[in-house]
Inverse folding.
């Protein structure tokens, strides 16, 4: 029974995540970004004026984790928070000029990471793996909070 555990989907997904996270961290290290900071920075850059609730759903990080990440990105002068015109309590997120440049520059590092992660697979296997993971996530969204589902549906089109 114990050997079967290592072949369960949950265990295999966790191991694949560890590999992907390690490779991504290596590729982003020279840019001074963690993988969470990269995802957050690029998401803010691609969605100027997004608020933290929508961003949380988009990147699938809880608001408290994301708050700390945003603080660090703001300290590095990569993002800025501006009060919304409609409600001054709501802070909207934007990349600074420096943050936008880094977001654009970091895409190459992300592409290198993806190539390293999927490198051992053939083109058909890569497409199949990506398709199946996307399907699994899409079909499991009913287990996610409503705010996350709404954002994921918006992004999925």
């Amino acid at each position: 029974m114990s050997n079967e555990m290592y072949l369960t989907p949950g265990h295999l997904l966790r191991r694949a995540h560890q590999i992907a996270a390690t490779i991504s961290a290596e590729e982003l290290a020279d840019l001074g970004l963690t993988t969470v900071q990269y995802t957050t920075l690029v998401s803010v850059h691609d969605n100027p004026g997004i608020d933290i609730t929508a961003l949380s759903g988009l990147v699938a990080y809880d608001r408290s984790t994301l708050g700390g990440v945003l603080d660090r990105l703001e300290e590095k002068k990569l993002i800025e928070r501006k009060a919304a015109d409609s409600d001054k309590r709501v802070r909207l997120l934007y990349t600074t000029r420096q943050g936008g440049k880094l977001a654009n520059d970091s895409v190459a590092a992300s592409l290198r990471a993806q190539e390293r992660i999927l490198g051992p697979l053939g083109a058909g296997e890569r497409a199949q793996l990506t398709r199946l993971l996307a399907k699994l996530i899409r079909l499991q969204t009913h287990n996610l909070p409503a705010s996350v589902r709404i954002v994921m549906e918006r992004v999925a089109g």
